[in-house]
Design goal:
Layout (H helix, E strand, L loop, with lengths): L6 H13 L2 H13 L3 H23 L8 H9 L1 H29 L10 H18 L1 H29 L15 H8 L19 H31 L9 H8 L3 H33 L17 H19 L5 H26 L3 H18 L4 H21 L1
Length: 405
Amino acid sequence: MARKLNTWTLGGLIVGPILGSGIILLPPLAYERLGTQSVWAWLAILVLGGAFAAVFVKLTLLTHSDAGIASLVTRERGPVWGALASNFLTGAVVFGVVPVLLTAAQLWPADWSFGWPPVYWAGIFLVVAVALLLAGLTTVSGLTLVLSSLTAVLLVVGSGLALVNSPRVAWPVLDLLTPGLGQTLLLLFWAIVGWEVIANYSKEVRNPQRTVPRAGMLGLAVVSLVYLSVALTIQTVASKSASPPTMTLVLLPVFGDLAPSVTGLLATGLCLSTLLMFTGAVTRMTAQRARQAELPQWLGWGHPSKPPKVAIAVLSATSSGLLVLVGLGWVNLAFLVATADLFFLGNALLGLIAAWTIFRSVFWRLVLIVLMALFAALVSQGNPVGWILVGAVVVATLVKKARAR
């Protein structure tokens, strides 16, 4: 019998993917845009992150299905809406795997790359990810626990040493008229995305009513501490240095000249953690939908308690094809990212809509209004081709459901 996730392993499964490449890319980017005002942006986004996490932790406790939040959407809004939520999450992962692989490849230490182009390393990382997925959830959760714990400790210790050794910087006065504040807040919102996928693992959690809230609190505390300490370090050190702000500044006090290589290794590991969490959730959901005759039954081949080998193979083959197209220059990486964003936002919005019918208190409904408004603002930034693809998925889902009836 497979081992169930406990507070620590579920917490590790949360922290690594949510930090992801964002912890490497977002703090320097926020400082470049806002300067010392970036600390206020981080405080605001982490408060919203707490609300976002709380909503989806509560929803996770209401589901016990590999379909995750989509099962609640089906229950509260009907089968068509539930199918849309599942298809949106699948679309997000289909288009999002290659950008994550290439991000990991580009951040891989240059001294270890043998001169190979990033697309080759992305292919190698895809093979590693498939092997880990086939090894099972226990292996993946244990790996992400070790990686996320190591990353959190190194970044917090490095931030502490950097702050102690740097001249003190006065806390800035909040200026709501700072140019670019709104756009940067929307950008930083990606630092808290990922909580809605926890529900897809609810069947694998030991004592969910106790474990999920504890793991959620642990994950939120670690993610918030790491992001805030790194953001403070970036703005404190970079404001006194002529060098561009990078994550290497945080690890310099600990690793010295090795800091760039360590940064690359940590970033690569975090990207793979994100990839494993989302692809694991989608392949499990795909296999369950196949067993329920919502998708071709061969996609659900195998024992329900084992890794969904066929679904993993199909997703990896799709990712390999897209990776080849990117390598040939036929598909633009920015297009893949923007399209994945639209599908992801669609899935999250449907989850929030389902939560609206479940949560009746004034407090939670105010939280949902704020979150839905932010997501709607992000959706409005989508590209036309992405909207066409999303529209095609909506039409195909409606037609399939109409034929089924």
